[in-house]
Amino acid sequence: MTNSRIAAVDVGNDSLKANFGKMESELYIPNVIARDVEDRPVIGIEELDEKDPIDNIHIRVHSPALKENNAIYRVGNLATKAHNSTELDPGSGKSEEDQTLVMLFASLALDAVSNEVGTKSNKNKQNMIDANYTLGTGLPLREVKEGKDVGYRSQLLGSVHQVEFLVTPRYQGKKVNIKFDEVKVYPEGFAAFINLVMDNDLNIINKDLIDRQILIQDIGGLSTDIAVIRNRNVDDDKAQGFNLGVAESLEAIREEIYTKHGVELDSRRDVVDIITRNNDRHHIMVKGSRTSVHDITDRILLELAKKQYRHLRNVWQRNSQSEICYFVGGGSAVLKDYLKSLNNNLDGFNIEFFEDSGESIWMMANAYYKLISDFIAKSEKAEKKEEQKVSSSK
Ligand SMILES: Nc1ncnc2c1ncn2[C@@H]1O[C@H](COP(=O)(O)OP(=O)(O)OP(=O)(O)O)[C@@H](O)[C@H]1O
Ligand SMILES: [Mg+2]
């Protein structure tokens, strides 16, 4: 595994988060892709080179794992601007969508070209890069429960996947051959638990928590998962998933601000900023005047928080011996104040949030990193022992 680079990738319905190598680089890419039927016209190279590659991911993907092989895609911010872009349908299975693989391969290829992972020797032809990865990733509990992780893993391991950069600044014409030396697919709820109780070397950092029964409510862009952890393990039968995230509410706020104030916000991200920033929270500028949108944000977010709270209550009822519930995911950052105040007025459950919204959002990607690094460390140790045995028996 000497030339293998670590990749820990969380393909979220809303965005992909990835950690690479020794954690020296990371990627955050909105989970949006658009099929290109024809090649895009090539833009003047000078104009192109000033742009950031990550905002202009334009690729052809060749892989036997895909249902549509050799298709051309715009990925991330570039796809947002296309009229035919697709976001993941919350009802569909992550493990069975080409979109999941396209996002995954795009992120690895970007990492490879930006680091020239391939050392000089395996950069055979100038524009070809061979990149070997040891991958830690995850699937929703529901899919792992159905055994989908097995097929997902083997199709990744089984072949070489090629990403060719088309009209992307700096990387135009480069081809990356991605090969996996090892792939680990973890259930999402379990990963969150690991991140809570262990540090990067998998030392236990939270002794109090490790043998307790705890709940983890992960509120994402399009979906919410509640995991029940008991005996240091996810209780498969108790886990619950809902097709309810925070994206719809953010979109509703954006629309209402437009109708009421005539102000068009660029994206859901802008809405998040208005709700969570420290200064001028819940305010926008309208024709140069500072204007409150608190009535709009409060009503819509409270509505969603109530729905989320109902789910928590149901799960807690069926797992009455739970001691604490941790709220993770980007949605938890957005709903934090509302959920806390609901809880104060209602059941008074023992619930906990993360101070830093980044921690919430990167929870899975960081957990996969811990798990895959630990896996590598253990297998290297085992290899060394094997070598010692062989040499001492000589
Ligand atoms: N820094 C931030 N603070 C608060 N909210 C954010 C922040 N960044 C993103 N969000 C919002 O959180 C939501 C996404 O959360 P998250 O990244 O956890 O979802 P996901 O994991 O991609 O989706 P899912 O869990 O449904 O698969 C988005 O709607 C986004 O707008
Ligand atoms: Mg998520």
| Structural class category | alpha+beta
Q: Which class of the domain at 5-191 and 370-385 in CATH terms?
A: Alpha Beta
CATH architecture of the domain at 5-191 and 370-385: 2-Layer Sandwich
On the 0 to 100 scale, the average pLDDT is 89
- Main-sheet strand order equals 3-2-1-7-9-8-5-6-4
Poorly predicted regions are 117-123
Bound molecule kinds, no repeats: adenosine-5'-triphosphate, magnesium ion
Helix content: 25-40%
Assembly form of the protein: single chain
Major sheet summary line: 9 strands, mixed
- Which topology of the domain at 5-191 and 370-385 does CATH recognise? Nucleotidyltransferase, domain 5
CATH superfamily of the domain at 5-191 and 370-385: ATPase, nucleotide binding domain
Shape: globular
Q: Terminal Cα separation, in Å?
A: 25 Å
The value of Rg in angstroms is: 22 Å
Task: Write down the secondary-structure element order.
Answer: EEEEHEEHHEHHEEHHEEEEHHEEHEHEH
What would your notes on this structure say?
- The protein is of the alpha+beta class.
- It has a domain at 5-191 and 370-385: 2-Layer Sandwich (Nucleotidyltransferase, domain 5).
- The chain is 40% helix and 25% strand.
- The protein has twelve helices and 17 strands.
- The chain has helices at residues 45-49, 77-80, 98-115, 141-145, 148-157, 188-197, 207-210, 247-261, 268-276, 294-318, 330-345, 357-392; strands spanning 5-11, 15-20, 25-30, 33-36, 57-62, 71-75, 128-139, 161-165, 175-187, 214-219, 224-230, 233-234, 240-242, 283-286, 289-292, 324-328, 351-352.
- Strands 3-2-1-7-9-8-5-6-4 form a nine-stranded mixed beta sheet. Strands 10, 11, 12, 13, 16 and 17 form a six-stranded mixed beta sheet that branches.
- β14 and β15 form a beta hairpin.
- α6 (188-197) packs across α12 (357-392) and α8 (247-261) packs antiparallel against α10 (294-318).
- The longest helix has 36 residues, at 357-392.
- The model is unreliable at 117-123 (pLDDT under 50).
- The structure holds adenosine-5'-triphosphate and magnesium ion (MG).
- Residues 12-15, 218, 220-223, 245-247, 250, 268-269, 272, 276, 329-331, 333-334, 357, 361 line the site of adenosine-5'-triphosphate.
